[in-house]
Amino acid sequence: MWIGYALLSAIFAAAVAILAKIGLKNVDSTLATTIRAVVMALFLLGAALVLQKFSLIKTVGNQTLTFIVFSGVAGALSWLFYFLALKYGPATGVAALDRLSVVFVVILAAIFLGEALTFKSVTGLVLLVLGALLLVWK
Asked: Domain segments of the chain: what residues?
């Protein structure tokens, strides 16, 4: 089931790149990111209300909340730089370099979460980097 969700995430992430690139044509990237964040917040608040998830708020402990907040800050920084890159660069190149986050996730997961670095995963990372470079270099 998680694979289907991940593929849907990838499809919507592709839509973000294309729609944002078109929308950034005549607007500051920070302002555009802010508008996007407000829309996302309102959408997610609505989803949480409709799905009745606010009753689960008591299950969020202090440590969990801290990590979620830091994740939010990291996400905001990621989107600020993503929209800035989209403003000035080609959508294909920006998206390719952005997806190198997979490389960083694998490395950081190995360091902080103890996930295995195998020959297969390292080979996949090398291919991801090569693929990104092929899409970026003209």
From this structure: 2-98
